């Protein structure tokens, strides 16, 4: 089976979740994340939820990061070259939803990926080896390849892992994946 097969499968699984189920599972994921020994680090990167795609609601994790007074960065996508710039999330950060439905910062204090200690990674699917399947544009693989080697790459998923996903040489593996019921370490 190829990547388009798994993308279609997991988009369909998400579409079939009710908004209430997505929200409850998102709270469970945030609670599982609290159990990881990552809270003594300084710089965290988080994705903002694309609601129309029923992604994990990261507001709960943002509340944790704010409550722990962590430096939190969010991304702005450049679709001309499939890259992202990263900005510190502050009380003054203006966020606007782009034409793809992605909430993004409109400037601010730029953060270099090499400063990040933890990246919370969106995904459609992942496998028991830590391979991740995203939407297919390579934004996160390019981004993660520019992070420092010991940066934690933590996927967030409503679902359990596949046994094996198709991969290529540009794919960056996760170090962890957090689900509503369990955290996987790779």
UniProtKB/TrEMBL annotation:
Q: Which GO terms describe its biological process?
A: folic acid-containing compound biosynthetic process; tetrahydrofolate interconversion
A single Gene Ontology MF term assigned here is: 5-formyltetrahydrofolate cyclo-ligase activity
CC cofactor: Mg(2+)
The protein's Enzyme Commission number: 6.3.3.2
> Where along this sequence does the record place binding of ATP?
3-7, 132-140
Q: Which reaction does it catalyse?
A: (6S)-5-formyl-5,6,7,8-tetrahydrofolate + ATP = (6R)-5,10-methenyltetrahydrofolate + ADP + phosphate
Which Pfam family would be a valid example here? 5-FTHF_cyc-lig
Matching InterPro entries: FTHF_cligase, FTHF_cligase-like_sf, NagB/RpiA_transferase-like
Positions of substrate binding: 50, 55
Q: Which UniProt keywords apply?
A: ATP-binding, Ligase, Magnesium, Metal-binding, Nucleotide-binding
**Taxonomy, superkingdom:** Bacteria
By sequence similarity, the record places it as follows: Belongs to the 5-formyltetrahydrofolate cyclo-ligase family.
Name the record gives this protein: 5-formyltetrahydrofolate cyclo-ligase
The species this protein belongs to is: Leeuwenhoekiella aestuarii
Q: What is the lineage of its organism?
A: Bacteria, Pseudomonadati, Bacteroidota, Flavobacteriia, Flavobacteriales
């Amino acid at each position: 089976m190829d990547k388009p097969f798994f993308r279609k499968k997991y988009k369909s699984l998400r579409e079939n979740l009710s908004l209430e189920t997505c929200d409850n599972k998102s709270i469970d994921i945030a609670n599982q994340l609290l159990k990881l020994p990552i809270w003594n680090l300084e710089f965290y990167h988080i994705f903002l939820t694309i609601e129309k795609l029923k992604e994990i609601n990261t507001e709960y994790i943002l509340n944790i990061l704010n409550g722990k007074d962590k430096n939190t960065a969010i991304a702005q996508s450049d679709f001309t070259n499939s890259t992202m710039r990263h900005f510190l999330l502050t009380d003054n950060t203006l966020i606007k939803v782009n034409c793809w439905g992605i909430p993004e910062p409109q400037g601010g204090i730029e953060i270099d990926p090499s400063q990040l200690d933890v990246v919370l990674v969106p995904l459609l699917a992942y496998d028991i080896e830590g391979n991740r399947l995203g939407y297919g544009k390579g934004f996160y693989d390019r981004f993660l390849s520019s992070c420092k080697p010991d940066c934690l790459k933590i996927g967030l998923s409503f679902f359990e892992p596949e046994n094996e996903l198709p991969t290529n040489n540009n794919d960056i593996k996760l170090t962890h994946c957090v689900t509503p019921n369990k955290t996987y370490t790779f």
